[in-house]
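User: I've been going back and forth on whether these two constructs are worth ordering. Before I decide, could you fold them both?

Assistant: Sure. I'll take them in the order you sent them. The first construct and its C-alpha cells:
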Amino acid sequence: MFDLGSKEALTKEEEEEEEEEEEELFQEARKESLSHIPLEFKRNIYKILCSYFFVKLLF
C-alpha cells in the first residue's frame, strides 16, 4: 500500500522546507530589530571599534 521510503523522503523534504522558512523569518526579524538604530549611530560605533582594535594592534 504505502511505500515507507517515499514517506520518509517526503517528511525530510517538509522538514527542510520548514527549516528554510524559519531561517528566513529569523533573518527578517533580525533586520527589523536593528532597523530602529540610526545609521549614524551604527557608523560611529563601527569607527570606535575599528580605532580601538587598530590601537590594540599597534601597542
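The second construct, handled the same way:
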Amino acid sequence: YRGIIGNIAYWSPQSWLYLLNPRLDRIICVCEAIRRSLLDLGMPGIRMRRDVPVTIHKGHRPELYEGDAEDLGQYGIPDDTFVVACTVRAVPRKGVPVFIEAISGLPPGLNIHFLMAGTRMDSELHRKLVAKSPYADNIHLFGFLKRMPWILKNVDVSVLPSLKREGLPRAMLEAMIAGVVPIVTNVGGSPELVVEGESGFVVEPGDSEAIRDRILRLYNDRELHKRMGAAARQRVLTEFTIEKTARETISVYRDLVGLATDAE
C-alpha cells in the first residue's frame, strides 16, 4: 500500500473489497506509519491481524536522475543565491500557507530565493499570501514542472510542511537524491526519511517558527548545510534502494510460501 494515512476505514465497502479483505495474508506498506495506522483501525470485535501489514520502504534508482542540473535562471532565480524549495501537490493538507508564513518571517536582506512548484501551487490563494510577504519579489510560484529532479540539483533546502495524512513522500526522496537538505513535518512516513539533525530536520506540523529556524540555521552555517546534504543523499543510496526493496519483498513471499507449505 503506497497511499497515505487515513484512506482506509472499516465503514467503507470499498475498503473491505481492498485492504480490509479478510483473505489478505500480507499488506506491504511503504512506511512504518502506514503499517501502524492499519493496525490502529478497527471496530468493536474487529481488528486486523498484527502479522498482515509489513513495512518495506519504497526504493528509488538514483541513476534515473542523472544528467546536468537545470539552470534556475529561466525560473527567475539568480546565480549565487541560497535556494529553498517547496514542491508539492498543493492541496490544503500539504500546509503551503504555513511555509509562506515561515519564509515571510525571515530577517530582511537575506540573499535567498524560494521556488514553489506543483499542481495548484500557483493558486489565487497562494498568490495573495505571497503578495503580502516581505520576500514577495524572491518567491517564484509555478504549477507542475516536469524537470523537477534536475531543478533540485541547484536547490539547497526542500521543505515539506504537511499538516496530516502523509505517506512516504517521493518529492523528498528526489530532493535527497540531489543532495538537498530536507525539512519535513512529523506526519506520516516523512520522519522515517530523515535522521534528525544529521540528514535533515523534523518539525511539528503547523510550526512555521520551527521551519523558519531550520532554514536560517542552514543559511547561516554552510558547512552544516553541506554536511547534511551529503548525509541526505547517502541515506537514500543506502536505505531507500530498489535492491533493498526487492530483497525484503522476496522475503515476504518466501515467508508466505512457507506458511502455505506448513498448512498443507
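Notes on the second construct follow. Residues 13-59+241-263 form one domain. Residues 108 and 134 are 8 Å apart (CA to CA).
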